Amino acid sequence: MTKIPQNHPRYKSLIARNKLVEASNDGLLAQSAMIAHGRGEAFDYLLGEKTSESANLAIKEVAYRLKKSKKPIISVNGNTVVLAGEGLIRIAAVLKCPIEINLYYGTKDRVVKLLELLKAQQLKVSRELPPIGWTGNWPESVISVKILGQEEDGRIIGLEGPRSICSADGIQDADTILVPLEDGDRCEALVALGKVVLVIDLNPLSRTSRKASVTIVDEVGRAVGVLLDEIVNEKYIRNKWNNELILKDALEIISKSMEIF
Amino acid sequence: MTKIPQNHPRYKSLIARNKLVEASNDGLLAQSAMIAHGRGEAFDYLLGEKTSESANLAIKEVAYRLKKSKKPIISVNGNTVVLAGEGLIRIAAVLKCPIEINLYYGTKDRVVKLLELLKAQQLKVSRELPPIGWTGNWPESVISVKILGQEEDGRIIGLEGPRSICSADGIQDADTILVPLEDGDRCEALVALGKVVLVIDLNPLSRTSRKASVTIVDEVGRAVGVLLDEIVNEKYIRNKWNNELILKDALEIISKSMEIF
Questions:
Q1: Which of B25, B32, B45 to mutate to test the interface with A (most CBs of A within 10 A)?
Q2: ipTM of the complex in this document
Q3: Is B53-257 a domain of CATH 3.40.50.12640?
Q4: Could you read off the pLDDT of A18-50 as tens digits, one per residue?
Q5: Beta bridge partners of B74
Q6: Residue B124 CB contacts under 8 Å (≥ 6 apart), including other chains
Q7: Which of B17, B244, B257 minimises the CB distance to A35?
Q8: Reduced to 3 states, what is the DSSP secondary structure of residue B255?
Q9: Per-residue pLDDT tens for A125-136?
């Protein structure tokens, strides 16, 4: 792997890419995961590789919805674990909610490998200082986070075949799902079941972005860092939520990035 | 690999993706090749997955420049061979020019594997009917196409390290280079050497797109098909070339694709 100078203008993006390449070599990702990451890279590049004001607003709304939820869950796939696993464990520890490994193209082998990685991330996070503004027993809260995904005893009604499999005590039973990088079909099925579906997706035109209850149009690692802070230090005065306005703003940012000549 | 129904709205894009995944499994591609393909997919999606009128104009200009060139060459990397190898062999047969395998992150093993794939493609193309409008001995013309890349006896002045390696009788000596999917640094170095650099790049904002003599903003497989026809059946009345106008048009198409709400 090439060493990337820290002053490279796209340093974070290249570090994220390297993480993905390594995880792919270790068998943690589906075959199309790298291509999906590349698509995300292109959108992030067009969005200026930073969290926009409208994305910030969506993060606040997601924090609000997660906190008022009775049974929230965080659903992760391979790319999410690699790019934002530690941040999501922190969020799960604060919310006292489980994390479910739920793969679109899943194999038992990959679920086990991702579980191992999440367990290692969990141990690492448990040894850190708690997030600023949070009080309590941090190591205990982190280690208590349940990691689901091997049960396969639940179903997402409205989907067929392996894609419908989930944990009965996880996604099936949850009222609110934070699911970064979700597939369009599944997003739609979860919404149809009456669940609150909170997504992080760099493509404001994707079906996932357009079907979700709240869409954070931002890179997952960046968004998760801001989201944790927002959950711990609530400062949000909430109005009626209009997800379409958020998507429209992201499209305008991309559109403006085209005005260079 | 999932079977894709022929009536899928994004059938061609998904077929291309599968080809890349298979080639990657066979060790033909660099680690970041899939990510690069994903970036391309995102831009193609924003461009409507079709050859625009301005791309068509750029293809005509590229055909003109290749035909008037004294020493043209086609430079290919892994993704290019997988996505458009056969089409480029047809073009090389018509132009009577060599193809050079020239990799940004090259290994001898990958060069050999790509050479084998190109040879197989060459054999297949030699057994086809000639392109409509072309006359001559097609099998002989196809089999005569020289495939360079193992010589490593030339240098691209202005670059350092392995990236500077090329064939003395290929890129080093050529006056005009058709190089789909080129890296920005190399595009710049080739232009600085006074060569005519003709690129195919889906990102109209990339350094390659902006530095090239002529930029075809289109998917490589699609563009190469149109280019062959253009080379064989010249109908082009040429004006002064303004590459910036072409890039501006592509940016406008992307910008318009954002106006969906």
A1: B32
A2: 0.84
A3: yes
A4: 899 899 889 999 878 999 999 999 999 999 999
A5: B99, B178
A6: B86
A7: B17
A8: helix
A9: 999 999 999 999
